[in-house]
Amino acid sequence: MTRLIDPSLQKLSFIMGEMGDMVVESISLAIDSYLDGTNTIDKVHSLSNSIRSKYYEVEDLTFDMLLKYQPVADDFRFIRSSTEISYAFSRFGRYAYDITQVRDLFGDVSKCTNASLIESTKKVKHMIKEAVLSFAELDVRKAIKIREDEKVIDRIYKERLPKLIESNNTKCALAEALLLRYLERIGDHAVFMSDAINYIVTGKHRPSEERIASHTKQD
């Protein structure tokens, strides 16, 4: 039986799906353009603004649902976490734009030594896609793996910075340091998002293995 709140929940899920698609596109576009030496600042800026607008739309919709329908526990966790995740989406969009600004400021840096960036960006793009997918499917096992990827990004960041300080190529070192910092922050927001997904499904932000297993979907 359809409840009064169900159409609004479906609309919320649809908006969140749109935001997820735009986040994946903006992050991928920004990172790839930096490494390839192409300029996509206008397109990424437009995507970032659209994601931000969706974030306000989610806020208005969730506030409206809380006032009108007095949601039960499961619905309330989804509504509350949607506001947190939509904020994480808006931060992803902003960091994507920041990355294009680095490319715009420093010019083509595709000739720099970017091995650590390439490794980090692969992880970040994987994390973002997994975070979006785990939210769409409410899959806690995927959400848990995001934390493991984030540790790799942190390790690269901490190992690479001391080497950049000693670099003789100021332009490449500064650009890479900025990019690594943005990627590290994106990783932190992806972990925050995975905690919110865990909360929706299990009622805990950092659930035990037993609780994860009891809420894991069977293939």
Cα distance spanning the termini? 27 Å
Q: Unreliable runs, pLDDT <50, ≥5 residues? A: none
Instruction: Give the overall pLDDT as a whole number.
Output: 89
Helix content: over 70%
SSE string, helices as H and strands as E:
HHHHHHH
Q: How would you characterize the largest beta sheet?
A: none
The Rg value, from CA coordinates, equals: 19 Å
Total E-strand runs: 0
- Proportion in β-strands: under 5%
Structure, explained:
This protein is mainly α and 219 residues long. 83% of the residues lie in helices and 0% in strands. The chain contains 7 helices and no strands. α1 runs antiparallel to α2. The longest helix has 34 residues.
Concise structural overview:
This protein has 219 residues and is mainly α. The protein has helices spanning 6-36, 41-69, 73-106, 115-137, 140-165, 170-202, 209-214.
List descriptors.
219 residues, mainly alpha, globular
Topology:
Layout: H1 6-36, H2 41-69, H3 73-106, H4 115-137, H5 140-165, H6 170-202, H7 209-214
